Amino acid sequence: MKLEGAGAIVTGGASGLGRAVVEMLAKSGAKPVIFDLNGDAAEAAAKATGGVAVAGDVASEADAERAVATATGEFGNLRILVNCAGVGTPGRIVGREGPQPLADFDKVIRVNLIGTFNMLRLTAARMSEQKPLDDNERGVIVNTASVAAFDGQIGQAAYAASKGGIVSMGLPAARELARAGIRVNTIAPGIFLTPLLQSLSEEVQQSLAAAIPFPSRLGKPSEFADLVRFMVENSYLNGEVIRLDGAIRMAPK
Q1: Which residue in 105, 117, 159, 192 is the catalytic one?
Q2: Which residues, at least 6 apart from 153, have a Cβ–Cβ distance to it below 8 Å?
Q3: N or C: which end of the chain has fewer CB within 10 A?
Q4: Sequence-distant contacts of 123-131: CB under 8 A, at least 24 apart
Q5: Is 236 known to be catalytic?
Q6: pTM higher than the cut 0.85
Q7: Torsional sign, CA 48, 234, 77, 163
């Protein structure tokens, strides 16, 4: 699918990996909607890239419908969804103060897994109504999982479960949506230099980088965006999960 002229929604698009995707889409001639819980940051990203900001919660049906309606109303041809929104609150199943609060687990599952599905279902419904392009293609959806889906560490039970759900959801979604000409792929990133990691000391960053076989550095958000571009443009790539991690396999802790 060609990026130029395509309408797109990027959840979590105000910062980190999502922001890099928004910048890539804008530079490629696509028209991004930045859907983020942080409305001010979304507005700033929209101003910088020529996109449109929508503030809201990906797990809210009303907010997600508003983002889809905005993309359709502004651009008329919603072709791309990139799900980057997520949270990663750590917590042991049984810690010093007892079992992990159920609300903590519920929040991570709600934002990461339910939020991804919420956006996928609503966007796919809208995409399926559009005229097909080359190869009878109507849209592309890229979900963001994590290497934690495969190598979850101690304290990551909720996060790993949410990202594992995203991985497992990809193939059945791709199979079902194939009849509508919609492809679904998943990226499982490793350790990337996002604003959260940039706030850590240089010593900590170097320690994390040393665990990555090659290249022994943190991933660049632009490299994540490059893979999103490939997934959108290569029409034969469907139902796939790609690790983007420098060959790291996370240790237990």
Answers
A1: 159
A2: 160, 250, 251, 252, 253
A3: C
A4: 123/9, 123/68, 123/78, 123/81, 124/173, 124/177, 124/180, 124/182, 126/68, 126/72, 126/78, 127/78, 127/79, 127/180, 127/182, 128/177, 128/180, 128/181, 128/182, 130/77, 130/78, 130/79
A5: no
A6: yes
A7: negative
